[in-house]
Design brief:
Helix content is 33%, strand content 26%. The chain is of the alpha+beta class. It binds oxa(dethia)-CoA (UT7).
Length: 325
Amino acid sequence: MTSPIYSRITGTGSYLPGSPVSNADLIKRHCLDSSDEWIVERTGIRMRYLAPDNVGASDLALEACRRALDAAGKTPMEVDLIIVATSTPDFVFPSTAAILQRKLGVSNSSPAFDLQAVCTGFAYAISVAEKFVRSGSTKCALVVGTEVFSRILDWKDRGTCVLFGDGSGAVVLEAGNAPGILSTALHADGSYSDILCVPGQVSGGLAIGDPFLRMDGQAVFKFAVKALAEVGEEVLANASMTIDQVDWMIPHQANIRIINSTAKKLGLSPDKAIITVDRHGNTSAASIPLALDEAVRSGKIRRGDKLLLEGVGGGFTWGAVLLEF
Ligand code: UT7
C-alpha cells in the first residue's frame, strides 16, 4: 500500500516596495479631508507601502519568491507549479504567474496560473496548490499573493484610499510524508458582489465603467466578522481540533477591529493574532503571506506551531487553512 502524500510549507518570503508612507504623509500628498487619528482609531492602520509607477505585481512577487525559495533551500528549476493570487495583475494577459515564471528563470514548462479571489486569494491559492501536491502531480509549488492596489484606488475617496497598500508574500509548498496542511475550507457568495468591487473593464482601448475600488465599508465589516468566525470553526471541526490548539491566527489584514472581533467570536486570545495591518495597511491577497513571513522571520512562529490562516474579500469570497508549520 502506498502512503498518502501530504503538503507542507518549507519556506516563506515577502517584499514591500520602497519606504513606508504614514497616514499624515498620505493625507498631505492627496489633500484628503482625513486625520491620522481617524484612520488609526477606525482601522488600526498607521502606514502602508506604495509601489513606484514602473513596478508591477510580478516585480514584487519576484522578490518575495526569491526569499521563499532561499528559505526552503530550493532552486527555481525545482518549482513545478506557480499559483499567483492577485486582483492587480501586470496585464489583462499573459498571467502574472507566467511573467513571474520567466523572471524567476523557471524554464521547465510546469504550470503557472493566476487565481482571482481578491483578499481571499492566498487562502484559495494554497488550498488549490495543496490539492495538486496531494494528487502527486506537484512536488514543489510556489504560492504567491501579490498586489499593487494603489493602481485601483480613487485618491478622492477617503473612505477607501487610506486603507490599502502594495506588497507581496510567497510560500514554497512541498510534498512530504507528514502533514502539513490539516484542513481547508473555501466559500463564495456572488450575491454580495456589489459591496466590494472594481466595476470597470478594458474595451476598445478604453477603461469602460468605473476602474476604481468601491466599497460599502459597513456591509463588508459585518460580513467579514461573521464569515471569518464561521470558516475558522469549520476548518477546526474538519480537523477535529479546538481553538485552544491553535498557536497563531493569521487573518487577512483589513482592519484591527475586524481581527479583534473575529478572535473574540472564535474564543482566541487577541495576542494570538499576527498583526501587520498597522504597518502594511490592507494588501489584499498579499496580506496573509506577508504576515506569515514576518512572524516566521521574527521568530514568533516556529516549526510545529498550529496556524489558522483566514481570508475574506470581494466576490464575496472567504476561506481558511489550518496547518502545522
Ligand atoms: O479587504 C476587504 C475587506 N475590507 C474591509 O474589511 C473593510 C471593512 N470596513 C471597514 O474597515 C470600515 O467600515 C471602514 C474603516 C471602511 C470605515 O469605518 P466605519 O467605522 O464603518 O466608518 P463609516 O463608513 O461609518 O464612516 C463614518 C464617518 C463618515 O462620516 P459621517 O457620514 O458620519 O459624517 C465617513 O464619511 O467617517 C467618515 N470617513 C472618514 N473620516 C475621516 C470615512 N472615511 C474617512 C476618513 N477620514 N478616511
